[in-house]
Structure formats: structure tokens, C-alpha cells
Amino acid sequence: MASAGALLLALLLTAAAPAAAASATPPSGPGTAERPVVETDRGAVRGREAAGYRTFEGVPYAAPPTGPLRWRLPEPAARWSGVRDAGAPGARCVQLPAVGPGGQSGSEDCLFLNVTAPKPAAPNPAAPIPAVSDAPGRPVMVWFHGGGFMNGAGDLYRPGRLASAGGAVVVTVNYRLGVFGLFGHPALHGAPDFALADQQAALRWVRANAARFGGDPGNVTVFGESAGALSVCLHLTSPASAGLFHRAIVQSGSCSLTVPAHSLLPALPAYEPFAPEHRTVALGAAAAARLGCGRREAPEVLGCLRRLAPEALATPELMTLFSAVSYGTPLLPTEPRRALERGEFHRVPVVQGSTRDEMRIFLGQTLAAYPVADPQAYRSRLRAVFGARAGLVEAAYPVTAHPTPALAFAAALTDASFVCPQLRDSRALARHVPTYDYGFDDRRAPDFTGLPPVAGFPYGASHGSELPYLFDTGLPMSAAQRVLAERMGGYWTRFAATGDPNAPGTGPWWPRSPAVLSLAPGPSGGIRPVDAAARHHCGLWDSAGRTLDLERAGS
């Protein structure tokens, strides 16, 4: 059962990258001499042309964290001479498959980013180095990928439409994952949160280089989904991120996200994306001993660990153990949800949202092993997960109100884990900054996960199902879905430009929190404000959350 738990923790908060984007080839263009060139602060890079935009991929933003630099804070990338080819992505960070069998892939030399910029309307053919944009000062959007802090990569997301139609300069980022990014040990004097430090290094690169690609370094939006959304939460609450961004978009990963124990399998513990530093350090000391490096003085322990081959570290056990971001550290002094409650976050406008059926994609992978086949099994699952509150939960989510008991259970898990924690966080944010909430409600969204369907259990608007509406996936959409994608792209890029997703004559108005904007195709339902707190029974879950806080405080 331990291996199943590791597998599901790897799946949890892993937004499978858009299938078409994962295999997409870089934009093609004319000969090398005509490809666009930009001079960055470390050297020149040559990108590629596409219809309406240009890409520069595999650009290093920090030195390779290899050898003696393993488990060190990122250092500046070395300068290079000549023109570096930026026509293809760099290596992805070391990782294991999100689901299914397979060994490690990627490299420790992985701190690369990709820039997608609007194509100039009228390039100057006489210029020796073509300018990327004839409209300096475009909003910059920096995307942090999902993957449970254990897998994923920036190049899996193709933001061509956000650049060409939305006029944004979009940067997608790789950062260290699992044991390589979130390890702690007494010899490291704690758990330095290298993954967060990598992202901050990428944001410093953006500040230094955005104008060279036509962007405004004073107008940077951080956005992400799943673990990428949790990353945005980190930047909102990390003192070291101050001044590195000016707006934030949190997609399916609020600061208060948690999944109760036993939700998916009997032995699976609760999912908590943030952990106290002392816990991570204790896990690191025990792991070092198992790896044969424990009984040494501090410098020798680190030397021993740094000499290990990547494959000795990239095991399911270690990648899972070190997939939580530590708090109580210099980069993250306070648990993020506590920081929001106390008003200890950067004062920037925020968009937050969840999908209607977040947990279906996760629950669907376990139903064969742990079915919810009938009302009796449903009640048993509710008791295992919610204890004394099981009766209240069943009253709010009766089997008769859902097509099947399994779908009723998925609805309860979605609201308890994702939607209502997000709305609680938004109330804390809205006391200080403009805040906009959405619910993605297209239950016929294109399926980009590649996961097999489950009979009688449609995935609906599940975790990550909004991504094809923002990124180029090549998946077929109906006319109404294409309109929704256009409107969502407009909301996202207008928010990046101004801090407000609205503009006169651009479509349904998005009111501020506590209102929630439903994002769905078609005139019936469509895009409209909804009472999400009532729809998702948040009174019940807010009460449960307060009880859990009291239990934590007493432990």
C-alpha cells in the first residue's frame, strides 16, 4: 500500500500537461540568419518565429545546480560569447512519471526558462539585431507549472495565444523538484526551499531582461495551476519575493488547500503541501542515514550526499517525502494560510479559482481498488474521512442529489479540499487587495490528461481542465468553447495589464470577491456570477476548518 500511496501523492496536484503541447515542436521559421536575436544580460539568444509571436526557449536563468552546487541556493548563470541557440527547450528537471511505471528522466542541469513574446507589427529590416517587440512595456506573465513539486516542466505549456492575442510576454519556468528542490538536513542548517529560491531567481532574471523582449519589468504577473498555484501562494507570502511581481493568479491551489486522510485510499495520509521545517530536517537526516551518509560530520555528510548519482536520489520514496515546501525558513517564515489570515502578504491584486469537479480526476484513479459502489459504501467512506461530521456531510451531499455515490463523494472532497479553502483565502485577501474569484464550470472540457476513462464516472470540469482554454493544446473545441477560451484569455491578460480583468465592451463583467464568476460556454449558464459558497456548502466546510485549526493548535 505504501507504493500506491506514493503513486497517488505523485498524481495529487499533478495537472497533466496538455497532451498536444507536450509533443509540440518549437515554432519554425526561416533560416538561422533571419531568426530573431535578443541580447540578454548573460549573452545573446536566437529564437524562432511563429504566427503572431516569437519564442526563445532553453534560456538559462541560473547556474546548473550540480556537483557541489546541489542543494545550494541558485547562483547566476555564466556569461557566454556569441549567440546561443534558443530554438528548443532545455532539459527538464529530474523527475519520475506522474503516473504509471518508468524510471527517472530529466537532468539536474535544468534551470531554464522559455520566453514567448508578441511578434513586432513592423520590424525594421535594417536593424542588425531584430527587436522582439515594437511595443515596449507589455505586461509580463510568469508561469509556474504544476506537478505536485515532483514533476512537470515549463515547456509543456505553449502560451502562443496569450502572447499573440493578449499582447503579453509570457515566461515559463523550470525549477528543482522533489528531493532536489525541497530537501532538508541539519548540515544544511534547515530546509532552504531551493525550489522557491529557483523561482525567485527566475523572477530576478525577468526583472533584468523583460524589457529586452518588449515587456515591462514593472508589471509582472505570476500565475500557475496546481503546484504552480501553490507556488504563487508562496510568492504572495515570502518576504524574499517582495518587488518581484505585481499581480497574482492562483488556479486550483490556494494557500489553504488540503486533502483529508483516507480520501482516496485507506492508508493514504492527508495531503498538506506545506510542512514545518523541523519535520523536513528530521526526514532528511533519516534519509541520509539510509543512503549511507549519516554517520559523518556535517561537511562530510553533504559531500557524501552530493556525490550520489541522481538516480540514487530520484526514487519514489525520496521524491514523495520531499515534496512539501517547508515553512519557518528564511524564505518562508510563516505557514502561508496563517500569513493570509494575519494580512502578512504582498499587496497585489489577485485572481483565484477552482474547477467545478476538482477531485474527480484523482478519485477516478482509485475506484477500481477502493470503490464507492452503493450508499452503504458511501457512508463508510464518509465516516473514514470526516469522522463525527459524516452525517452532516451526507445531509449536504445526499446520494439522491448525484448520479452515483462515487460522484457524491467526489463533490464533497472537491468542496472540502479546493473550493471552500480558496474562498476562505479570498476573504482574507479581499480585506486588503482587489480580489477576483472564478469557478471553471465546463463539464465537457477537452480531456488532455491521457488517463483512461472510468465507466460511470465522468471527469467533468476536473483538476486542470481549464488549461486548454489558456494554452495552445491543439485539442478540438466547439464554437462555444472557443469563445470561452477567447474570453478567458482576455480576462487573464487584461488582469495582467491593469490589475482588473474587465474593460468596457469586452464581455460579461467580472465582479470582485466575494462574488464568483462562473466560466462556462454557451448562453444558458455561460459566464455569470454565482453564489459559489452556497453551491459548494462552504458553511459546513468553514466550520470544519475552524475545528481542524483548533485541533492543530492543541497538538
Q: What would your notes on this structure say?
A:
Helix content is 33%, strand content 14%. It contains 18 helices and 16 strands. α13 crosses α14 (390-396), α13 (375-386) runs parallel beside α15 and α15 packs across α18 (538-554). With 555 residues, the protein is of the alpha/beta class. The strands form three sheets. Strands 3-4-6-8-7-9-10-13-14-15-16 form an eleven-stranded mixed beta sheet, with helices on both faces. The chain has a three-stranded mixed beta sheet with strand order 1-2-5, with no helix packed on it. The model is unreliable at 1-8, 19-26, 125-135 and 550-555 (pLDDT under 50).
The major pleated sheet works out as: 11 strands, mixed
Number of strands: 16
Structural class: alpha/beta
Strand content: 5-15%
Overall pLDDT: 91
Distance between the termini: 27 Å
Instruction: Please give the count of helices.
Output: 18
Overall form: globular
Percent of residues in helices comes to: 25-40%
Strand order of the biggest β-sheet: 3-4-6-8-7-9-10-13-14-15-16
Gyration radius, to the nearest Å? 23 Å
Task: Name the poorly predicted regions.
Answer: 1-8, 19-26, 125-135, 550-555
